[in-house]
Amino acid sequence: MLKVGLLGAGRIGQVHAVNIARHPGSTLAAVSDVHAPAAEALAATYGAEVRSSGDIIADSAIDAVLIATSTDTHSDLIEAATAAGKAVLCEKPVDLSLERARACLAAAEGGTVMIGFNRRFDASMAAMRTALAGGEVGTAELLSITSYDPAPPPVAYVKVSGGMFRDMTIHDFDMATFMMGEMPVTVSAAASSLVDPEIGAAGDFDTAVVTLTYGDGRLAVIRNSRRAAYGYDQRIELLGSAGALQVDNVTETKLVKSTVDGITGAKPTYFFLERYMPAYVAEWDAFVTAVTNGTAVPVTLADGVAALELAEAATRSAREGRPVALSEI
Amino acid sequence: MLKVGLLGAGRIGQVHAVNIARHPGSTLAAVSDVHAPAAEALAATYGAEVRSSGDIIADSAIDAVLIATSTDTHSDLIEAATAAGKAVLCEKPVDLSLERARACLAAAEGGTVMIGFNRRFDASMAAMRTALAGGEVGTAELLSITSYDPAPPPVAYVKVSGGMFRDMTIHDFDMATFMMGEMPVTVSAAASSLVDPEIGAAGDFDTAVVTLTYGDGRLAVIRNSRRAAYGYDQRIELLGSAGALQVDNVTETKLVKSTVDGITGAKPTYFFLERYMPAYVAEWDAFVTAVTNGTAVPVTLADGVAALELAEAATRSAREGRPVALSEI
Amino acid sequence: MLKVGLLGAGRIGQVHAVNIARHPGSTLAAVSDVHAPAAEALAATYGAEVRSSGDIIADSAIDAVLIATSTDTHSDLIEAATAAGKAVLCEKPVDLSLERARACLAAAEGGTVMIGFNRRFDASMAAMRTALAGGEVGTAELLSITSYDPAPPPVAYVKVSGGMFRDMTIHDFDMATFMMGEMPVTVSAAASSLVDPEIGAAGDFDTAVVTLTYGDGRLAVIRNSRRAAYGYDQRIELLGSAGALQVDNVTETKLVKSTVDGITGAKPTYFFLERYMPAYVAEWDAFVTAVTNGTAVPVTLADGVAALELAEAATRSAREGRPVALSEI
Amino acid sequence: MLKVGLLGAGRIGQVHAVNIARHPGSTLAAVSDVHAPAAEALAATYGAEVRSSGDIIADSAIDAVLIATSTDTHSDLIEAATAAGKAVLCEKPVDLSLERARACLAAAEGGTVMIGFNRRFDASMAAMRTALAGGEVGTAELLSITSYDPAPPPVAYVKVSGGMFRDMTIHDFDMATFMMGEMPVTVSAAASSLVDPEIGAAGDFDTAVVTLTYGDGRLAVIRNSRRAAYGYDQRIELLGSAGALQVDNVTETKLVKSTVDGITGAKPTYFFLERYMPAYVAEWDAFVTAVTNGTAVPVTLADGVAALELAEAATRSAREGRPVALSEI
């Protein structure tokens, strides 16, 4: 039974708390949060203690920590936790600073750190990768990722988010690497602010097309928008030499209405919590299994840094209006 | 080059005229209609002569006749045309009187008569039968036919139509035999007038469920309505021992609109002319090919009589509230 | 916090145990089972006591019991539990004997008894009923329920199951009443044994079409098979005066593969545990909410008896080869 | 009745011949081809004369010419035909040389020239533009065009085709302008040869992602491949401020097979002749209608030159590895 300390009791921390508590191989031992009432509420629900993150990391009875705090604390907490011998599951992104993230990667070497790229654990995405790896559509040639949020975040959030590429597209960058099995050599991004002019005024983008070119000429393209009126649009397609694979959206229900106005089905599930709840459960299970069995975690800290490199390259490409080589980053 | 006489220049006759004229193996030589202007308009368009049906049948230069006249003339015309050595394609139903249809079948024995069950020539329906015959889902166990018209016909038409089972369901009865490969032993129909009370007042039905039981216990069910607000609903499903086959509706376009109100696709094509136009082309091609090659026509007069027997049984079942054995008919 | 005793620790009892334990408004206090190890395993997992069903019912500290025992014990347990003032959620069917079920209904009058027709709590089915009730497709005219199991049960089970109509179709009967809002006046069933000859030898059916006729002429048809090679097929359609509603299958993933062999999507989820797991959660939540708030349970014991009446009528109809009036039952 | 001369009796000329002959407002009067037997066969089928293209253009009894000859002759024939007062429908592309195409545009000024961008006449594409123009999804933000051929052309063809962007993507460039309603300001292409190394050896590409940036920040992305094992993949999506529009593939049939291996539907229609045959009919009808009524043709020679400009920019971008401004072209 893995004894787990949860650092951060906000929205995503609450999701993880449920999964930690329900998993037969883990128990939620302690919770910390800079906002005490949040930690207290979670702790009360699951019979855990409220403690500081430092105490939790220092406690030898704690086997693992889940880091769901604000991004600027991730690197420090990863380093402290691995130094204390804890297994770590840390939410994305590793850091807004690529330099700091790289330093963290070096510091945490030898430790057990998994990054929370939850989409890898979505049943459909995972099945797609398995089908691809099994050669069911030949070799990969052209990958397409569609990733639209239902509505833009508040501008206040945008300003501290590191920008769309580091905050939102980072999931798509990881998915590209997950599917293509390697890093691209160049990144070319076209990006605009069409959804909310305040996002543009804050120096960020809300709509983008990012093209990735791989060493052997394979291509990938990511489409992003901060707004899709019909809900969270999360699709992925891969054209291979012998066919194509495609993951469609999950819908709220399977009800279809046929009237004189057309044939109408349900919208996609609203946002990531609805779409990826089963993926968070599977992610936690994968972490517990790896830590318990002493096997490698399926998403590494290096994967987190790699995704950040792509975000850095895309940001530079969009700002400078030119393809950026990964070797520049 | 098959020289063809078209008997009947109404709506369905006009459809056939185009197909006869366009087919590289047939030419439209003559047209008849009780309403002279209709015949004249068609003849002018395709460079054919206007003649009486008697003249056309008597003309040894005419190879084949297509009978698209009112139902009460079908049997007489089939008999006359086959007696004159013409190949015949006759629209459904053979006759409203089963007795008369049976007499026609006997009289036309040895002649070449094909009945216009156009759905057998629909690419999807035909592919379904091929898949079934090829054992792709094992042996057939439960067939389901959905057949809804977009809107009810005028009551004046209903009164002379022979009733919904002879007029509309007859296509579904033929499709059941086409797929199951044999006639059922009992027919059980539940029917109501829900769409238009005048249809009920005229002694007919507009909504029905018909269950067919086959000798070996296999089952089929037909669902009918004279009204589907969203268009012509023409689907068919077959559960087999190793899977299922299903034909979905053809839609007006492939456009899908996603908004806050849902994900909306196009409606089915409106009615039989839109849905089955390619099937009419294929039907005519099958007729020309069979006649030209001297091979058997793919839908026989006996098939037409068989469908009428099922219509008769369904009508009796619905009226008497009991399953009717085919042996009673 | 509702203190719950679980009677029956078999497969479905285990499903309920999880939901009882996880619900914030209920706790699993005690478990009974005729097979002690099953009860012990469940009790250990959730920190509950193992007790006899009699003890549990007699314990005034227990607020509610969930009856997941074998069908022949349902009526007795419902009566005992309601007599002891417990709120009851009982699995379907109420009883194999309609007479006994009716007696139970009379005996339990005034008590709080909910029957576990889980499909009413499926998000898609519930949304369909809401849409229908909201007049989104006008008034209901023709309801169609498709309900195929992936594989037949062992013949040993079939022999004690009360037959397909009482064991399997009973869910579809309840769904028909749920959607149509009233009981039909006649039931007409055609049924065969096509899947497994031993099922036929045991006097039961494995393939059926059941037609329900309502007082105002509205119709419903249920299609059943004990075997669909591709998984659990659970669809429902309703044709209304202004359109149609349809619930499609839930699939294992959203992955689609396109190759030279066609465009292939995932199969439906395998069976009822996979398909209806969220419905069981919602069902339990509805029970807890009703009991806690003192409001009416959404599926009553009378609903359970009504479904049994339809099963009785269908069984008689299939055996006697005639429509059976509900007034005969 | 428009008297039409058909210049070019190859594959696409044959498609047009049928449509010219069948249209009630046009007749096929003459056919020319450098390969005499091809012209003779077509002429015989439709009762037209075989003549040289010069004779046809010089004949004052001919109202219109359809240019379906090899691309290198288009500009000369357009100029000659418009000088002779003929209405012209010319296949794409206008020319492989942008300079020559621009000269042709200047020379043909005042004449009636329509370019054969058939996809604009596809019912689904046209419905999408109508929905967009009607504001059904708000304002356009991000357009995505998927355009994969089923199999690559012979390398001999590739060498004279002007390259993938001028030969294949040109349709997608026109579609982008059709939907977005204006030309982009920059074009950025990433392209590879993954399908056939001989295509790469010939200096061309077979796989590409092209990003278009519009003056107001709106974006479009085109995905191309010369090979999709499952058939001709022709989809288009548009994300707008209030929703999205999407055109899916047309499939060979509507048959769906469900087995233990999954749920398999039919493939897309094989290639452009199958997919766009109705679009060619509608295109010809639009031309006849415009010429007969003296109204503007719906696709102009300027549209043809504009698409060529985008092809030129994309070619340059892919070769130079940088975004290319339209102002450079």
UniProtKB/TrEMBL annotation, chains A, B, C, D:
It comes from the Bacteria. Residues 2-113 form the Gfo/Idh/MocA-like oxidoreductase N-terminal domain. Belongs to the Gfo/Idh/MocA family. It is an enzyme of class 1 (oxidoreductase). This is Inositol 2-dehydrogenase. The keyword Oxidoreductase applies. It holds the Pfam family GFO_IDH_MocA_C.
